[in-house]
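This is your field. Pick holes in the following sequence-structure pair:
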Amino acid sequence: MKPVNLQIVPYAPDHEPAWEQCCAASVNATLLHTRRFLSYHGERFKDVSALILDAGKVRGVFPAAQSPADPMLVVSHPGTTYGGVVHPGWLSGARMLEALSALAAHYQNLGYQRLLYKAVPHIYASAPAQDDLYALFRLGAQRLRCDLSCAVGLARRQPPDAQRRRGLKKAQKAVTLSAEPLHLGALWAVIAHNLARKHAAKPVHSLAELALLMNRFPHHIAIHCALLAGCVEAGVVVFKTSTVWHAQYIAASESAYAVSALDAVFDAVILEAQQAGARYFDFGISNEQDGQVLNDGLYRFKSGFGGGGVAHEFYEIKLCNAS
């Protein structure tokens, strides 16, 4: 292989066109990696993203920000589910090892002590792209966390289990389905109430932020609702990529649970994802306490639609030892 001399360049606003072009051509980027998405955070994070150049050509980008909880830690990325090196395929094998080594040296020079790398789950890549996991191993990275998501393979979908089939029959007699954006506010009320009632938590996004993102990504973010007596009582917020439709939020009121409303919602959304050419429908993780606790009941509900496990892996590089 021809030797390369990679250069790490800190991201600046005038790099946005090149960044977005790299994401558009990438084998492993999703809308979460784009500046158009990352910018919705505003000043919430201290951005320390970087571009990876070879002879002046952008070969990859690395979304990153300083951890709000630890000024010595850089995270790729604290405001997204996953981050990592995004590239069009050129950064493979030894080149990826060079890229991660250069990134580690770059952040060490900025004064950071550790780098948290949130790998892109393999289902989101349009082609095999796990060279970064090998490079992390070579750099002595430690796997700090592993979450378990559940995804339905759409090319050869496994049949839903008996409980989900019964739930669907029940739901179809009781609910009306809608994907109209005008229901966002009503769905958000259900989501917020659900999180408060079950987990004493709040949604990651505010209603205003999600409305902003839906406006920015009208073809990639959508809602799907179940109505009872004309009122929104259940639904999901779906983030769509070229390979995966991901359920970002899932919620149902007590009355919606009583008629298995989510079974009708997911049956319709999974079919739509399949018809749109997506490879997977991803229900998201079922973990608590940084992956140490699995909500098995929730995971069984999701896998009942014909899904299987997908790992979300988190690695830490100690920058003082990186070479």
